[in-house]
Amino acid sequence: MLLKALTLSVFLFSSVCAESTSFQFYSERLSETTTIRIALPETYRHSSDYEYPLLLVMDGSTQFNHIAGNIEFMSTFAEIPDMIVVGVSANSRLLNFTQTELEQFAGRSGGAENYTKFLFEELLPKLREDYRIASHVTVTGHSLSGLYSAYLALNHADVIQAAISISPSLWWDDFVILNDLANLTAEISKVRWFASMASEPDEMAEGFDYLEAAIGKLTNTNLTWELRRFPDETHDSTPLIGNVMGLRSVFRGFNAVPQIEVKSLEQLHSYYADYAEIADYNLPMSVHQYNVYGLKAAYEGQLAWGVEILEAGIQSFPYSEILWDSLATAYTMNDNYTAALNASEKAVKFAEQHGSKYLSEILLQNANLKRDTQ
């Protein structure tokens, strides 16, 4: 069993932020240039048409790296979807992340609605031109940008499907954001919202106390929410654990086989059809889902299921060295060495094209298969 677990972990391991880039984006609405950072999933080149959900990271200059890394790791094991991660740097945090203008900050606050139009009417269309982005959008923010992601969850479920608010500055303008919560109706679109608070004093803790009391009274809305406290974290450290737990929360139920149990391809399709009804979005299975579920089935006594799942994955991701290599493993387990070698040759081809971190393992399996088929 240990050997199986070790073998499985080799094939599931993924590199972090395999493809990333940045560019300067000028906004006519904001009259300023913003740095945009993008991390594509390692699997992006495994298909020519698969569309990935989007995560927008506010305060991208400081929060982008750790969030992109965690997403790459978590999606590798099908905890959450593969995602395109976009970090948006913040030039004017107080202006862009607050929804109301205060007299003492006149001209420097209250620009959240204008900033929302920048994100979804200027930046997002540009991103969709250049990248294969699905309709599902999640926004995450911390502190003032956590207030902003809360604002989106409560006011703009028309443009996002999920929001994560880490230690949000709910105190702004005498906790005005809580009015938005109280005014939610059943007519809003479905949205998932995770908010958390570290061990923080004064108005930060007070705002979260108010939120806990108010949100528990909600009835008949399409808001699915979770609140968490992290008493061992500080304001600065909490984005690490907060975003991991937030991603798990807003994608709760995404992993069809989180434990040892396995499912057939037909059962997986049925599971995700039900999940789409609950979550109100439908994402086709990704490379990592096919890989995780296929290898789990093969190693847990359902080899035929595993082969079927991996072969289906190849149909959707014909350029995936991960899936071709795993399929070669499954064929070998079934003593089909000719098919295994053919799959392994394709894995080598695409691994070399993609500069895959798996190349040495793929070459080793290929050499072993060549030896065994002589």
TrEMBL record:
GO terms for molecular function: hydrolase activity. Keywords: Hydrolase, Signal. Residues 1-18 form the signal peptide. This is Alpha/beta hydrolase. It comes from Aliidiomarina haloalkalitolerans. The lineage of its organism: Bacteria, Pseudomonadati, Pseudomonadota, Gammaproteobacteria, Alteromonadales.
